[in-house]
Amino acid sequence: MSERKKLLQVIDLKLHFPIYGGLLRRQVGAVKAVDGVTFDIFEGETLGIVGESGCGKSTAGRAVLRLYETTAGSILIDGVDIATLSQEELRKKRPAMQMVFQDPQASLNPRMTVAGIIGEPLDEHTNWPRAKKLERIYELMDAVGLNRDFANRYPHAFSGGQRQRIGIARALALNPRFIVCDEPIAALDVSIQAQVVNLLEELQEQFGLTYMFISHDLSMVRHIADRVAVMYLGKIVELAPVSRLYDHPAHPYTEALLSAVPEPDPSLERRKDRIVLQGDVPSPANPPKGCNFCTRCPKVMDICRETEPVTVEVAPGHFAACHLIPQTAGQTGGAEVEHNQTRIQQGEVV
Predict the structure, then answer these.
(1) Burial degree of 35 (CB within 10 A; 0-12, 13-18, 19+)
(2) Residue 136 domain flag
(3) Does residue 321 lie within any of the structural domains?
């Protein structure tokens, strides 16, 4: 089997928003929204990004597309570092990378018709005649399950799910290879969420798309993602294939997140141990010394408050940053790794 090609490589990405204060409005600090994030996404893959509100998921997604100017780090799409491109060069790259936004009502212009919204990328990046553009708009409406007769209606005439379909059609207009889905189902009714996720999966298969799927709904991420990255306070604390992460979480924060996922079977729900984290998430303007999670971790040790943990490979393709994990985890045999995992989950220091 040939090795899969990496479509996106993010290396030590940082995005700090400056804080100004005093009479002279000098910079007195920075909000470290994304603070040294590294990950890859392979062609045709869906990488899920999860974490609680304010952990930097959406900011990371926007930074990857250069919707925000990055503070440091590299963003390679097909080997080209878009973090260093000028605005003119970046514009030429835009057709290959698009975004589906969280709120379908806020992301659509209320003064434009559906045909105008979906056709806007074509107006900006192509010089096609009007008839060809209209044909493409109808093709996209068919692809996302919208009636062609609605092409001249305005966004207020549609439901939330239909508006999100309009946003998806707009993102597909220029045949992108990579799409950032920023909580695309968060603003929708539960009955509509499954339809939108199924649509995204069908479009991925049909057009060979690669997704970065940002969400705080872990059960939905388990359904759609191939691998999952867990973020906390601007950093990735764990990254693993989806089945591995849900069955063998290595980081205490991941364990806490998974314990909060509702279990449909009442008998299993009663047996499940819920991990309730104490305190609030620290401010990204003043993160704690050492491990970012040390102020809330139920398994905290003295070293956690002093030294930032390095990311180690717990098992093939499974990475985590925690002092509970032995530094040699990547070199140990599979059986020993599993044994260490069991001991970690029982609260032992290995």
Answers:
(1) buried
(2) no
(3) yes
**Does the predicted model carry a pTM greater than 0.85?**
yes
Comparing C-alpha atoms, which of 3, 80, 52, 50 is closest to residue 61?
50
User: For the chain, how many structural domains are there in total?
Assistant: 1
pLDDT at 223: 92
Cβ-based neighbours of 90, under 8 Å, separated by 6 or more: 66, 82
Average pLDDT taken over every residue of the chain: 88
3-state secondary structure of 56: coil
**Residue 304's domain spans which residues?**
242-350
Q: 3-class secondary structure for 145-195?
A: CCCHHHCCCCHHHCCHHHHHHHHHHHHHCCCCCEEEEECCCCCCCHHHHHH
Q: Which two tokens stand for residue 239?
A: 């990254």
**d(Cα 97, Cα 310) in Å, to the nearest integer?**
31
Q: Is residue 261 assigned to a domain?
A: yes
Q: How far is CA 318 from CA 12, 45, 160, 227, 334, in A?
A: 18, 16, 37, 9, 12
* Residue pLDDT, tens place only, 269-295: 666 677 888 888 888 999 999 999 999
Is the CB of residue 213 less than 8 Å from the CB of residue 201? no
Tell whether the model's pLDDT for residue 333 goes beyond 60: no
Sign of CA dihedral 67, 223, 52, 195: positive
Token pair belonging to 294 = 């040390």
Residue 281 in domain: yes
Residues 6+ away with beta carbon under 8 Å from 291: 297, 304, 305, 307, 308, 309, 321, 322, 323
Q: Which residues pair with 40 in a beta bridge?
A: 9
